[in-house]
Write a structure and sequence with these properties.
With 391 residues, the chain is α/β, with parallel strands linked by helices. 42% of the residues lie in helices and 14% in strands. Bound molecules: pyridoxal-5'-phosphate.
Length: 391
């Protein structure tokens, strides 16, 4: 018999779409896949080389669970220079992607009876990881265009609130938390003694504005914040499985203890490559972000012709979150049904908003060429005109 805990776990909601895309591809049907939450660029050459060197040099054994000191030092330097927040290597844990660090931090901080504030739309992994601890996610549905405000968070705080979860820029909305709101959230967290888990994995994939880390707003909020970040998105390293957490030593050490009883260290090869990623030439990253910006602008321009859709230009990430409520009808009553039909009829795969606790929306990833985006938009347009007529 499976445990009650695991029976409650919802598998990734993108699974159904993924399975269908794979099946169609197996049958030789070309699919325009606008679901992939990872850069379509190769890991930059200099990072690849560092991985190859690590293998050739025989750096292929266990390392310290927390990660090699060189990498933790490089992360400390990065956080000081780019985010204005000072840590020691003992306040850094390196793990198997940001996802694992998130799992660990929820396990370490939360238990039955606790509440975790999660603004929605949100990435479903947070919710499942919170539920696995026994704590209760308190969803705060944000109104379009999905800007988090301190007031909104404050209204949902109770004496059970243990953690406020922030993800800026956000998956799936691409929205940033404004600096003044972030400062106010910091004040509230400090006043009430609530932890903040700040998932900053998209911090570099940002277009016009600047990213701020909440931990940089003073020592008191730093003592309550656990920053989660990683290499997957910025350095196109999703398959290398490497991410990190920074926070108070007591919490970080507890996370390392947990990791020591599960995966131990992440790949030694990935760790060597990550040191070089941080210290090496950042030009390929800048080029990648420039290309994402071009695609974002193209996609927004191309979708303007479809007057039944509405969206806000994303400030960061490679996601466009589109309101399709005007297109829902008896035939396609939910965004899930609509996305399924779009895939079957028009061979375009997108993720329905249900996956992000936001029914009535779809998420389009622009992690593909302008040519593919253009064809995808054309097919969506035809699908809307032909198939969405019936009520
Ligand atoms: N956080 C957010 C908001 C994400 O969207 C993702 C991946 O999609 C992750 C974390 C996980 O990243 P990693 O590959 O480092 O586990």
């Amino acid at each position: 018999m499976l445990s009650k805990r695991i029976l409650k776990l919802q598998p990734s909601p993108t699974f159904a779409i993924d399975a269908k895309v794979k099946q169609m591809q197996l049958e030789g049907i070309p699919v325009i896949n606008l679901t992939l939450g990872e850069p379509d660029f190769p890991t930059p050459k200099y990072i690849q080389e560092a991985g190859v060197c690590a293998i050739r040099d025989g750096f292929t054994h266990y390392t310290a669970t927390a990660g090699i000191l060189d990498l933790r030092k490089a992360i400390v330097a990065k956080l000081a220079q780019e985010n204005g927040v000072n840590y020691t290597p003992q306040e850094i844990a390196v793990g198997v992607g940001a996802k694992q660090l998130l799992y660990h931090v929820f396990q370490v901080l939360c238990e039955t009876g606790d509440e975790v504030i999660v603004p929605t739309p949100t990435w479903s992994t947070y919710i499942e990881q919170i539920i696995l601890t026994g704590a209760k996610p308190i969803l705060i549905p944000l109104k379009f265009p999905f800007k988090i405000t301190a007031l909104n968070i404050k209204k949902h705080i109770t004496n059970k609130t243990k953690v406020i979860l922030l993800n800026s820029p956000s998956n799936p909305t691409g929205s940033l938390i404004e600096k003044n709101e972030l400062k106010k959230i910091a004040q509230i967290a400090v006043e009430k003694g609530i932890y903040v888990i700040s998932d900053e994995i998209y911090e570099k994939i940002i277009y016009e504005k600047k990213h701020y880390s909440i931990a940089s707003f003073g020592e008191k909020i730093k003592q309550l914040t656990i920053i989660i970040n990683g290499f997957s998105k910025t350095y196109a390293m999703t398959g290398w499985r490497i991410g990190y957490a920074a926070g108070p030593q007591k919490i970080i050490q507890a996370m390392i203890n947990l990791q020591g009883q599960t995966t131990s260290n992440t790949s030694s090869i990935s760790q060597k490559a990550a040191v070089v990623a941080l210290s090496g030439d950042q030009l390929p990253i800048k080029k990648m972000i420039k290309e994402f910006k071009k695609r974002r602008d193209f996609l927004c321009r191309a979708l303007t012709q479809m007057t039944d859709l509405s969206w806000e230009k994303p400030e960061g990430t490679f996601y466009l979150f589109v309101n399709i409520q005007k297109l829902l009808n008896k035939k396609y009553p939910t965004s899930e049904k609509w996305a399924e039909a779009l895939l079957s009829v028009a061979s375009v795969a997108v993720i329905p908003g249900e996956a992000f606790y936001a029914p009535g929306y779809i998420r389009i990833c622009f992690t593909t060429s302008i040519k593919n985006l253009s064809e995808g938009v054309k097919n969506i347009n035809t699908f809307i005109k032909n198939k969405n007529q019936s009520t």
